[in-house]
Design a protein that fits this description.
The complex is a heterodimer of chains A (111) and B (111). Chain A is mainly β and 111 residues long. Helices cover 0% and strands 54% of the residues of chain A. The model of chain A has no long low-confidence stretch (mean pLDDT 95). In chain B, a hairpin with a 6-residue loop joins strand 4 and strand 5. Classes of the chains: A mainly beta (111), B mainly beta (111).
Chain lengths: 111, 111
C-alpha cells in the first residue's frame, strides 16, 4: 500500500516568489492536513481538508493557502515568500478519526 | 503554558536499555494520542495510536495514556541503535482538528 507522497522533496526559492507543494494521500483517505516544521517552533498546523472542504485552519497568515481535489490530492501555496518560510512542510492523511500518516515532506529554502 | 510539554533531551542510553518518553498536556479535551518517530531529514513515522485512556502494546513499544493526570508515555524495550531518532508526541480533540505536537525528545542508543 503506497504511503503519502509529497512533491517536490526539495525547493529553493527567492524572497517574494510563490511556491506550490503537492500531496497525494494514502488511497482511500479523504482527510489531508498540512504542517510546517521548523527547529524553533516544531510542528505547527496549517490547515486540514476533507472532501475538498477546508475544515480547520491554523494561525498562519493568508499567504498560506491550500486546496483539495476530488481525488483527495492536495496542494498548498505560499505567496510572497519570506525568509522565515524556510521549513519542512509535511502533509498527513487520515481515514477518519484515527491516526495520521505523514509523508517525507518538502524542504523549502527561501533565499 | 504550552498545550503539550515534552522534555527535549537529549536522552542517551546503552543498547538493550528500557527507554521511557513522556509528555504532559493541559487540555482535557484531547482524546486521540499518537507517538511518532522522526529520523533526520525524514517525515514523522507513526509508532503508536491510542484513543482515550489505557495501555497499548506493539512489539517493543508500549504506549500509556493517563487522562486523569494529563500524562502520556512511550516505553521502548530492548532499545537498539536503530531507535536513535527524535520522538514526538501528538494529540487532538477530534477528527479534523489540528494535531498538537510536543517539541520532541532526541534519543541516542549506543551499541
Amino acid at each position: 500500500k503506497a504511503g503519502v507522497t509529497q512533491t517536490p522533496r526539495y525547493l529553493i526559492k527567492t524572497r517574494g516568489q510563490q511556491v506550490t507543494l503537492s500531496c497525494s494521500p494514502i488511497s482511500g483517505h479523504r482527510s489531508v492536513s498540512w504542517y510546517q516544521q521548523t527547529p524553533g517552533q516544531g510542528l505547527q498546523f496549517l490547515f486540514e481538508y476533507f472532501s475538498e472542504t477546508q475544515r480547520n485552519k491554523g494561525n498562519f497568515p493568508g499567504r498560506f493557502s491550500g486546496r483539495q481535489f476530488s481525488n483527495s490530492r492536495s496542494e498548498m501555496n505560499v505567496s510572497t515568500l519570506e525568509l522565515g518560510d524556510s521549513a519542512l512542510y509535511l502533509c498527513a492523511s487520515s481515514l477518519g478519526e484515527d491516526e495520521a500518516f505523514f509523508g517525507q515532506g518538502t524542504r523549502l529554502t527561501v533565499v | 503554558q504550552k498545550e503539550v510539554e515534552q522534555d527535549p533531551g537529549p536522552l542517551s542510553v546503552p543498547e538493550g536499555a528500557i527507554v521511557s518518553l513522556n509528555c504532559t498536556y493541559s487540555n482535557s479535551a484531547f482524546q486521540y494520542f499518537m507517538w511518532y518517530r522522526q529520523y533526520s531529514r525524514k517525515g514523522p513515522e507513526l509508532l503508536m495510536y491510542t484513543y482515550s485512556s489505557g495501555n497499548k502494546e506493539d512489539g517493543r513499544f508500549t504506549a500509556q495514556v493517563d487522562k486523569s493526570s494529563k500524562y502520556i508515555s512511550l516505553f521502548i524495550r530492548d532499545s537498539q541503535p536503530s531507535d536513535s531518532a527524535t520522538y514526538l508526541c501528538a494529540m487532538r480533540k477530534q477528527a479534523g482538528t489540528a494535531l498538537i505536537f510536543g517539541k520532541g525528545t532526541t534519543l541516542s542508543v549506543s551499541s
